[in-house]
What we know:
- By secondary structure, this protein is α/β, with parallel strands linked by helices.
- The chain is built from seven helices and ten strands.
- β4 (about 60-65) and β5 (about 65-70) form a beta hairpin.
- α3 (about 100-110) crosses α4 (about 115-130) and α3 packs parallel to α5.
Amino acid sequence: MIQLKNIFKWVNAGGNRTYLLKDINLSIAEGEFVSIMGPSGSGKSTLLHIIGMLDGFDEGEYRFLQEPVHALKEKQRSALYKQYIGFVFQAYHLIDELTVYENIETPLLYKDVKATERKALVADMLDRFNIVGKKDLFPAQLSGGQQQLVGIARALISKPKLILADEPTGNLNSKQGEEIMQLFQQLNKEDGVTIIQVTHSEKNAAYSNHIVNLLDGRIET
């Protein structure tokens, strides 16, 4: 499903090149559950954003479902992302001007899902995450944990083939965190959804079947 070949990413500051990722080679098959681990600043989120096509890279090749992402125009990459990928961000990235209901509904609008079907799917997500009573509130009126649940609901609603999750339980209490990890495991095992999570938690990593360790922008072997 995902092939990264000799991926480099760097930033230039004051004439010096600082590498964020160095020579990343990684293949992820459809249906895998992968955890990316490593100390802060090791490049975990950068790698996740590249896989999610939200960030570019300076050198190397990336194929997603056989498509050469490195050769695609931005519009084509965006279409791929919207069709196949659900992203759970560490900082939520909810749209402040939209209600909980509207935030969760957004990915369905990109996919031209009919209004009646949208309504049913959003209702199902509100129910699943116990946030029915919050549907008319705006992100600023929610706690961090509630915003995280809305972000997860939004990522799952369009039934993506690939879920990318950046510290998905970081803002949740331990019970909520466990429920989310069990939900991910269920989506992976029963629906065959490919999941890649960035996590510091050994407990969360135990749900995956493949761990990628990063250190200083490189994959440790």
